[in-house]
Amino acid sequence: MADNAAQRALRTMDLVPYILEHPGVSTEDLAVKFSVTQKQIEKDLQLIFLCGLPGYTPYELIDLTFEDGVVSIIEPQVLTKPRNFSSNEMVVIKLGLEMLREINVNEPDKLDKISTLLQKINKQTDQDSVLLAKEISTSPYYSVINTAISQRRQISIEYQSVSRDQLTIRLIFPYNVSMLNGNLYLSAYDVDRRSDRVFKLDLISRCEIGEPTELDLTKSASIDQIVELMVDVKLTNFIERNTSIIVDQRLTSDGIKVTLKVNNLEWISRAVMSYAPNIKVISPVALSEMIEQRVKNLLNAYSSQRGS
């Protein structure tokens, strides 16, 4: 695959300090080390030969030789050390490793590797430079869910539905666990509802692993429908919980325009109603009509109860 200019520039900056540490290295070995072709390494060396400090006289240019496939640096100018991560990059890496450590508490092999990387990072940064504002969400069922995903098994969960404020038993086929804003979310196929769902792991109160399955989820699911909603900018939790089915989101003057791909309109209509008036339907018309009819039915039921 062809490099872009940024990738090539970064590689050339890494080449000089590497060659300084390995004088007489071959272009063939360099190609293997940097995962490019030998021809590309030769082009990079030719580019380096024309680079240097302002002034660009022979005294300011990088000087190197690569005759007969053997490379040596004569004058590296300022490129004597490997590139280091910026402080911001180090913070992001450390946060990521901390999150991985939290969600892999039951996997000692992974924990050892993560701890080793964290020790390397801590040697280069202030150990107190990264402070987590709150504890990262964990779940006692993460290991069970991870096993179910790897072994293609179904699981039965007891889930606290926020929109309906009730505990429900769900039979699902999990396929992915992701983290967003410190919270763990499970993407799964809901057997009873015949569609994909996203579950917040914190809201799972019971989880039991079931039998292996050869279910083809692409055939079991109903036809996807595109839904467009205008979501209030304050409703980040709605977007977080539905990341697996959101195909696009754009910030507008009226809020966040969210495009979702859903398997049925039943559950999305309930979600819109539970967040009213902070979510408005843009399309399809059928969803708007469904919600309107439900609201009328609720109002009629309320009126009849008051009159009785």
TrEMBL record:
Domain called PafC HTH: residue spans: 10-122
Residues in WYL domain copies: 141-208
Pfam family, one: WCX
Signal peptide range: none
WCX domain boundaries: 243-299
Cited PANTHER family: PROTEIN PAFC, PTHR34580
Protein's name according to its UniProt entry: Unannotated protein
